[in-house]
Design goal:
The protein is mainly α. Helix content is 67%, strand content 0%. The protein has a domain at 50-68 and 79-93.
């Protein structure tokens, strides 16, 4: 056990003081990384939009099944679109 600790300590000292720096990236690599990050962000935003549309469809289905006296009187929040029934049916296929 003591030998293992000494070996690990020696390795960590060598790595700490070796001054190993990552190589500089070429402009092509930078742009590729930036483009991948941007594409990932666009995909995540689109998935959130799909999720919001699905939740709105579920909310409308629940409201349709509620008796009239239990339905809330307030309308949807500003900026939310009410999906048409075809969109909801298409989302849940």
């Amino acid at each position: 056990m003591l030998v293992l600790r000494r070996v690990l300590a020696a390795i960590s000292v060598v790595l700490l003081f070796s001054g190993a720096t990552p190589r500089p990236r070429t402009p092509e690599e930078l742009y590729a990384t930036r483009a991948l990050r941007r594409a990932r962000l666009i995909i995540e935003l689109r998935l959130l939009e799909f999720r919001r549309e699905r939740l709105e469809c579920v909310r409308l289905a629940i409201l349709r099944n509620l008796p009239p006296d239990l339905r809330p009187s307030r309308r949807a929040a500003k900026g939310t679109r009410t999906p048409n029934p075809e969109t909801c049916a298409e989302l849940f296929r």
